[in-house]
Amino acid sequence: MTIEMHPQRWGDPAAAEALPDSVRGLVDAFVGTRDTPAATDVSLPTSGLAEDLLVSLRGTVGDDAVVTDDAARRLRTRGKSTPDLLRARTGDLTDAPDVVVRPSSHEDVVAVLSWAVQHHVAVVPFGGGTCVTGGLAARRDGYAGLISLDLIRLDRLLSVDTVSMTAVLQPGMRGPAAEAALAEHGLTLGHFPQSFEFASVGGFAATRSSGQSSAGFGRFDDMVVGLRVATPIGELVTGSSPANAAGPDLRQVVMGSEGTLGVITEVTVRVRRLAAEKVYEAWTFPTFAEGAEAMRRLAQDRLLPTVIRLSDEAETMANLASQKDIGGEGVTGCLMIVGHEGASVAASRAQVTAILESLGGTNLGEERGQAWAAGRFHAPYLRDSMLDVGVLVETLETATFWSNRERLYQSVKDALEGSLGEGTLVLCHISHVYETGCSLYFTVATKQAEEPLAQWLAAKAAASDAMIEVGATITHHHAVGTDHKPWLAREIGPVGVAMLRGLKDAVDPTGVLNPGVLIP
Amino acid sequence: MTIEMHPQRWGDPAAAEALPDSVRGLVDAFVGTRDTPAATDVSLPTSGLAEDLLVSLRGTVGDDAVVTDDAARRLRTRGKSTPDLLRARTGDLTDAPDVVVRPSSHEDVVAVLSWAVQHHVAVVPFGGGTCVTGGLAARRDGYAGLISLDLIRLDRLLSVDTVSMTAVLQPGMRGPAAEAALAEHGLTLGHFPQSFEFASVGGFAATRSSGQSSAGFGRFDDMVVGLRVATPIGELVTGSSPANAAGPDLRQVVMGSEGTLGVITEVTVRVRRLAAEKVYEAWTFPTFAEGAEAMRRLAQDRLLPTVIRLSDEAETMANLASQKDIGGEGVTGCLMIVGHEGASVAASRAQVTAILESLGGTNLGEERGQAWAAGRFHAPYLRDSMLDVGVLVETLETATFWSNRERLYQSVKDALEGSLGEGTLVLCHISHVYETGCSLYFTVATKQAEEPLAQWLAAKAAASDAMIEVGATITHHHAVGTDHKPWLAREIGPVGVAMLRGLKDAVDPTGVLNPGVLIP
Known about the structure:
The structure is a homodimer.
Chain A lengths: L20 H10 L20 H11 L4 E2 L2 H6 L6 H8 L9 E3 L4 H14 L2 E5 L19 E5 L6 E5 L4 E4 L5 H9 L3 E2 L12 H7 L6 H4 L2 H4 E8 L2 E5 L12 H4 L8 E8 L1 E2 L3 E9 L2 H13 L6 E5 L1 H10 L11 E9 L3 H13 L3 E4 H9 L4 H10 L2 E11 L3 H16 L4 E6 L6 E11 L4 H18 L15 H23 L13
Helix pairs in contact in A: 2-5, 4-17, 16-17
């Protein structure tokens, strides 16, 4: 049984918990708290889909694939960004789909798209609903209705090729289901974003997700070797070979297209053997810059471990307060988590250890590392607990080349602090590294203003402006959705925008797929 | 001083040599030889560009950038496939450009494109002229003329960032010039395709080139982190970060676009430190299948050396005959070349050695390995010597997943032998390997028929059909050009073709860029 997320909070409703006292104390001191409960007894807008269209939709995919109840519609309203949660908490459900449709096959998806084109109904592909950039809030004006195309029934591992080390997954599989199915063959995908427990394989591909083990396993777009895609003009099958020179790489066009060019119905991924050994360690570096330099060295020497992440000074302090106290000792400087996974990790671990020590790192042992691994998917729950006490918490992320890292870090931090004012905590970590650069992931906590949504949108805009002004990307792994669209246009310029529009016009000429999302 | 290639042969005219006796003896026995000299005293078609257009072109980019002499036009007629050489050898120069234009800057390229759109003149971007798939034979009907946009003057290393380990190269730099400029900074790109000595950086990107060190350095499309592109609708700059989730990856759209979407005017690449140690060894495996299995194991264990290539039984025999005899001892089975490059290679070499030995490999030592490295760019010269004695030689290549390798190998071999008949040598090697699959590179030698062009085109079509029928790619690293277009259409299907056309219409609405190339 797949767990449905709470409509106003992240994750499993049963896993919600009040803010730990240690954290509330810290937050009270820095930010101030007050109880801010979410609205209850929220009512949905009436479905806007005409009765005759509903009848023809039922005729197209079958009665049991068409769901109109309020609970299903409410759970498919927007994603899980803090603005999404703020809207949901105040009872704003204006983006609710008219109907939820649950196809059971590629052919069902094709039939729904054909029906949608015929009746000019907007279609929003829905995987795990974990989007944090407004990718599920499609434009509905000008359409006869808006349906959420929930891929939850496309949840099978279709085949495994242990010679080529590939597997074909359906898009509605969530992270844990995909790993469990592969584990029966002794295999793993190795993709563990923070949204892992709820996000779907199709969503990973459509949004270019990147997981916490990206140093060892690569980004999701590195793992994909083939895609099957249903578009309004027909079926696209990509991935004739691991790599080729047969024109532009169309896999790299579908990936990142966020449901605007087609619906991904099969994902062929590279898989690996399950690791026999997994070790997570904590390290500390005197400064963020020194820790980043050590990461750069490992990446450029091509000695990256499976997991590597580095918190800045502020995040290191905040982490300590938010975790159960480990061993009672404080960590000074900047906390680094290093994970080694493989058939045998001793040799590569020794190489990494030698380099980290030579560059100023101090090994804090495995206990804190294992604690990180055990709690790695928990942070989003904490955000809800913060919202409950009137503290606005949100994350945003970017990436740049190593020589621009410090400038990007300072610019975004300054923009957030400048916009939100005193009593704002800006925390940062690096969690994805490349030979040529790295990501920066910011967590912001501040006291909710009278209009928290406007408060955050202004801060987000300031941070986004800063990213583009220093030549970085608007998103390393959260995708574009509707929230990042204006900055995407600045990042790729008018020719890039024209290319996206050209692709859109070619495969979705009437514009039924996720209208208003991604493409400026 | 850049060496111009011979218009009817590969490479440096001074490096041409007659077939070694050992090879001629072998070829005579298997295939039969007869002297078949190329036509001399060949005349070019008159330039078809109207005088007033020539005047306006000179006014646009300056007199010295506009070259109309026969030698320049002849050297920019088609590329270096065997069909191209056969046509050149018989004096067929019908694809000659009307004019050769040599821009000195991005702005010059922009001006030429604007002029071409205004006057509806076809523009064929030209780098090293090493194309083997008809990518320089653009369609000219319906246009006021056809110009070769020769990027030879855009030949500088613009900047180096040793923190991010990136460099910005102009597109007209040939392989050796790029390596020499980077070597002054202690850096290397590590891209060594067989065409290295003549091919250009812009061409590497536009065609998704892959070099002999791809196991260690990656394909060229792995090395590119940013591109500056002049298109008829404006400038595109991609590469805001090493990787991101800001929509489809437009770098991966420009790469492989073969001059049909824009002209690449700057290429930002990932670079690495020059290796202190370089060791090349030869190995032998009892069978092609066992050698391939060893490659698969290294790739899936992520222990690939810098260079790894494996000849099948036939190519191993032919290699021995074509090389100066080394040590006087024969090699049985299948020859593998293994190259280790790095600051220190002992540890990784020991790991690779242990695996190769455990899977049936026998180490033949460094002498044959170094001999391969010394002669690695020489093979295309041999093809001309063969054509001189009436032996048709050509290569073709493909790639697939490991579990499909044997089927692809047999199907293409059967197709070539079936089409060309008795007295045909079909040799094969694997030279690019991935976790999930590998390339197959075929060399074919057969006695020239009365109509060698038709003879080869029929064999090529049979081989291409075989690739597509078994689900492989039409090209791993030779790109599409005009020759592979019909099979590209089958490989990517009508939706894929529609996507390419949508991109083309968006950025080159009047279709002046390389018309007839790539896009079905």
